[in-house]
Amino acid sequence: MSGEMTQRAWLRLVLIGAVAFAAIPAHAQPEEATGDEAAEAEGEAEAEAEAPAEPEDPNLVEARERIARANELFNEENYDAAAAEFIEILELLGDHPVRFQVLYNVAKSYEALFQYGKAMQYYERFLAEGGGETALAPEVNAKIQLLQGLLGTILIVVDRPEYEVWVDDRVVGNNLDRVLVPGGTHVVEVRAPGFVPNQKEVQVPARAERTVEFELEELAEEFEGLPSWMFWTATGAAVLAAAGGAVYGVLALSRRNEIDDLLNNDFGGVGEVDMSDQDDVRNLARNADIFFGAALLLGTAAIIFAVFTEWGDEEEADGEAARLRLSPAVGRDSAGLWLEGSF
User: Fold this and answer.
1) Lowest-pLDDT range, 22-26, 111-115, 194-198, 296-300?
2) Are 65 and 84 in contact (CB under 8 A)?
3) Whole-angstrom distance, CA of residue 45 vs CA of residue 30
4) Strand arrangement, sheet containing 209-214
5) Among 5, 141, 212, 285, which lies 20 to 30 A Cα-Cα from 264?
6) CA gap 271, 226 in Å, rounded
7) Which pLDDT value is given to residue 50?
8) Tens digits of per-residue pLDDT, 264-280?
9) pLDDT in tens, 32-79
10) Where does residue 343 rank: exposed (0-12), middle (13-18), buried (19+ CB within 10 A)?
């Protein structure tokens, strides 16, 4: 354990020192010169001294600042944040010769998070990009062999070319066909834009492979609104029904007045009124009620259609043209239609 801590401390010191001095160019020791060569060399030295120093690469400056923060996060056991910081340092370093040392720190962070598949990948990159020639190589090779004995492989088959893979509520990558996981039971989920996410539970023994196949279903089309003709049809039918109710209401009232005139004529006598006359009034009134009821239902439907109608095309029409628009007006205790016009 103490050996590992010593190696870790050594690695961090090397990393900090390498980044700190990466921008400082090395100069060869000049040979002793005499006469004109000495004077010329002295003049060049003075000109070089007067020339402004070349600015340091800002990426290296930021990488140096992030190293201390990443190490602090690792020591605080905030391994997730530490891994994110180390990966950002990798991006800042680009092709710098010391980047393989950062790969080691990324691997250690993922190992502490029990994400052994990612840890092994970064350990392998550490060896491939320069770590194989360092004193840490035996330790890393032993780690890889140990992780290979702990990990199983999930083979993923998806009927879509583009998708995102989640394992145990953590995103592990895009368009993957295999994922390394610790032996045990895991929940694998596949997500793709426009499709319903699909997840399956799989039990993977260590040093074994299990295949999981996914068939993704398309999401239902997004509701974009009702066509405007439904609103106008319901509105027109409501107006016609209301007009029919008004006609039957006027007829019923007129027939009622005729009967009253027969019962009380100008001569003080009583006219002849039979049951058919009373039936006529009741039938006309009933028809008026039916039409007014239908008008109420159709008007309510028109209001509902107006709320869910897609008016975009109509709103994009030429603003200079005359037009009418019927809009729903809903209050606390009432509802109706509001007619708007522009000319």
Assistant:
1) 22-26
2) no
3) 11
4) 178-182, 151-158, 209-214
5) 285
6) 58
7) 53
8) 765 555 556 667 777 77
9) 444 555 555 555 555 555 545 566 778 888 888 888 899 999 999 999
10) exposed
**The pTM is what?**
0.48
Question: 214, exposed or middle or buried, with CB in 10 Å at 0-12, 13-18, 19+?
Answer: buried
- Structure token digits, residue 169: 């509520």
Give the tokens for residue 83.
């891994």
Could you tell me the CA-to-CA distances from 304 to 225, 259, 298, 299, 328 in Å, in that order? Answer: 11, 43, 10, 9, 8
Q: What is the mean pLDDT of residues 307-336?
A: 53
